[in-house]
Design a protein that fits this description.
alpha+beta
Length: 285
């Protein structure tokens, strides 16, 4: 499998790619660490922003009013699987969000590979239009994360030993903290009252400006990149390729530990899904 940097907004780039091969954030972090350790810290993979495979789904328990954030793996990535309607909805000025139907949202959120985070348990800093969660790259900093924060951090930046190794890579690159950006929490609360909404995922590591971000707040309409295998029709386009024998997508995606809360508990105890995704009432006029 030859994975390439494909440039464009998310919709245009996806039409040139085999969508099932688009890299996740943790997979790109592993590749970046490999390149960094080989002295290639200035390579394009280490200095560009990439749309990545997981879809971010925001929703609320209608009884407790608790807001949740689900991050899917590629097999349940609703934005990528419905790229044309998703890009159309994400481009609307009045409501720049993809609104999956209730059945799609239910399947994606309940999937065992989907990570679900209680947003009330994350220590965000709130700015004008963003909410930001910062993760220090030293063990003294990231070991202070609570259970929910650590689970979220590992979903994005790698699980277990991969998390330690990737944080070490960022620290050695001179990056003291990496940041996770969301739409402002007040905005999320307002929008989930209308039903679940989804945004694409974006990862940026810039070795020149010493910055690292993961964003669940972008629309996908900015010209950035994806890292994926091209479709046969677009393989003659001149691009930079990264076909390393140890690239994480050369083998089957590793099994992800069942995310919290366990799927068996997602209809009772932690939150009741029946309170989360309901079809919106139709207008009576």
């Amino acid at each position: 499998m030859s994975l390439e940097i494909i440039t464009g907004n998310l919709g245009d780039a996806c039409k040139q790619a085999l969508v099932g091969t688009i890299s996740h954030a943790d997979e790109l972090m592993k590749l970046r660490r490999k390149l960094f350790n080989e002295g290639q810290k200035d390579s394009e993979v280490c200095s560009k922003g990439f749309y990545v495979a997981g879809t971010n789904i925001f929703f609320v328990d209608s009884k407790t009013k608790t807001p949740y954030w689900a991050i899917t793996r590629r097999e349940h990535s609703l934005v990528l699987q419905n790229i044309d309607p998703a890009m159309e909805q994400l481009g609307q000025a009045s409501d720049p969000n993809y609104r999956p139907n209730s059945a799609e949202a239910r399947r994606a959120i309940l999937a065992q590979s989907t990570s679900v985070t209680d947003l009330t348990k994350i220590h965000f800093q709130n700015y004008k239009i963003w909410s930001c969660f910062e993760i220090g790259t030293t063990s003294a900093k990231y070991n202070q994360l609570n259970t929910e924060e650590r689970r979220l951090a590992e979903r994005i930046f790698g699980e277990g030993d991969e998390f330690y190794l990737n944080m070490d890579m960022l620290e050695r690159a001179g990056i003291n903290a990496t940041k996770i950006l969301l739409p402002h929490l007040d905005y999320i609360q307002k929008q989930v009252a209308k039903g679940p909404f989804a945004r694409p995922s974006w990862l940026w590591l810039d070795s020149l400006y010493i910055l690292s971000y993961f964003s669940a707040a972008r629309s996908g309409h900015d010209c950035e990149c994806i890292h994926a295998e091209r479709t046969e029709l677009t393989r003659n386009v001149s691009v930079h390729t990264y076909d390393h024998p140890n690239h994480p997508l050369r083998t089957q995606t590793p099994k992800i530990k069942e995310s919290y809360p366990p799927a068996a508990e997602r209809t009772s105890g932690v939150y009741c899904f029946e309170n989360v995704v309901k079809d919106q009432p139709k207008n009576s006029n």
